[in-house]
């Protein structure tokens, strides 16, 4: 994967390959949703109000979310009214098409890939896979031939610094750190200074995952951003929120809290393998209008995959 190749349009063949991979990786979600959809259309030959009511229930209970589900159902109703006769065999195709159309507006189009270093500040609560996501990204960027620096600005937990250092050693990229309890903004400042001095391409800044006080969180993240801009004007170029997809509706609440506390510009949703709650990706993308940049579907580095709405929707809705 080249640097920011994930934002390029994929060929139909590449999308098909991605659908096949995700269908395997997200088997639990796919099975759960398909079982509910099959129940929704059982004994029906055409898509009527009963089918749509049952489909609505199936999507809501699959963690797509109420608001997003209602928007999808409304779009399907419009298709059924326009086409006059729609049988239940066509429902999956229409469901995929309308869900993809709903998410299309959230595609990433404004990435400033020319910035050097390109600075990504990663936020999220403890336990969502934030530091692991940073490590996997560092590996992918390095494999693409880029020089990467990591900043251990989650100084609140010693374990977070240690984990990031382990990833840095494993991947072979430098980690800038200070003592536990140090000022996170100071760590970010030092990281960017080192990155600029050594002509780095990418900087990933880990931050604390505390949510007990939104005001403190907002003040801390704002301070980090302000300090970084003294070294690299315009930094951070991306504020990436990491969410645990296996928590379902709790991921919605985390997204709500963080988007209120800071200007989130992208998301990564992890731990989607082995969970029936993968529908949350559709709901979060629709509700928050923030592009999902990556999804995590396994433990391997390559299992952190660029998010492509069409293969994802097809993999979980049964196409």
Explain what the structure shows.
The chain has 2 domains: 95 residues, Up-down Bundle (Four Helix Bundle (Hemerythrin (Met), subunit A)), CATH 1.20.120.140; 191 residues, 3-Layer(aba) Sandwich (Rossmann fold). The chain is 51% helix and 12% strand. It has an 8-stranded mixed sheet, sandwiched between helices. The mean pLDDT is 89.
How would you summarize the topology of this molecule?
Blueprint: H1 12-25, H2 27-41, H3 49-60, H4 66-83, H5 91-103, E1 118-123, H6 130-143, E2 148-152, H7 158-171, E3 175-176, H8 184-197, E4 202-206, H9 214-231, E5 238-244, H10 249-261, E6 266-270, H11 280-288, E7 292-296, E8 304-306, H12 309-317
Q: Key features?
A:
Four Helix Bundle (Hemerythrin (Met), subunit A); alpha/beta; 319 residues; single chain; 8-stranded mixed β-sheet; Rossmann fold
CATH-defined architecture of the largest domain = 3-Layer(aba) Sandwich
CATH topology of the largest domain: Rossmann fold
- Rounded to an integer in angstroms, the radius of gyration calculated over CA atoms is 21 Å
Task: List SSEs in N-to-C order.
Answer: HHHHHEHEHEHEHEHEHEEH
According to DSSP, the number of beta strands is 8
CATH superfamily of the largest domain: P-loop containing nucleotide triphosphate hydrolases
Top CATH class of the largest domain: Alpha Beta
């Amino acid at each position: 994967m080249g640097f920011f190749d994930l934002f390029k349009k994929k060929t139909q063949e590449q999308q098909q390959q991605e659908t096949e991979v995700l269908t395997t990786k997200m088997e639990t979600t796919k099975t759960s949703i398909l079982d509910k959809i099959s129940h929704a259309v059982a004994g029906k030959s055409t898509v009527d109000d009963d089918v749509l009511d049952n489909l609505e229930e199936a999507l809501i209970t699959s963690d797509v979310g109420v608001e997003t589900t209602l928007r999808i159902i409304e779009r399907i109703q419009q298709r059924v009214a326009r086409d006059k006769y729609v049988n239940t065999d066509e429902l999956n195709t229409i469901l995929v098409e309308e869900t993809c159309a709903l998410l299309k507006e959230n595609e990433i189009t404004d990435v400033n890939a020319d910035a050097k270093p390109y600075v990504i500040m990663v936020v999220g609560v403890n336990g969502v896979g934030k530091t692991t996501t940073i490590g996997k990204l560092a590996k992918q960027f390095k494999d693409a031939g880029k020089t990467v620096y990591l900043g251990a600005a989650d100084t609140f937990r010693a374990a977070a610094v240690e984990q990031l250092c382990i990833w840095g050693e494993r991947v072979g990229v430098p980690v800038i750190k200070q003592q536990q309890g140090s000022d996170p903004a100071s760590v970010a400042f030092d990281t960017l200074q080192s990155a600029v001095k050594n002509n780095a391409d990418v900087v990933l800044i880990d931050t604390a995952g505390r949510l007990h006080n939104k005001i403190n969180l907002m003040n801390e993240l704002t301070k980090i951003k302000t300090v970084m801009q003294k070294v690299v004007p315009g930094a951070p170029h991306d504020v990436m929120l990491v969410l645990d997809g296996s928590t379902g509706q709790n991921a919605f609440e985390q997204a709500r809290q963080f988007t209120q506390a800071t200007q989130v510009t992208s998301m990564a949703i992890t731990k989607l393998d082995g969970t029936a709650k993968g529908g949350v990706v559709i709901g979060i993308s629709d509700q928050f209008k923030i592009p999902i940049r990556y999804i995590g579907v396994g433990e391997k580095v390559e299992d952190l995959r660029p998010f492509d709405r069409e293969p994802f929707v097809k993999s979980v809705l049964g196409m």
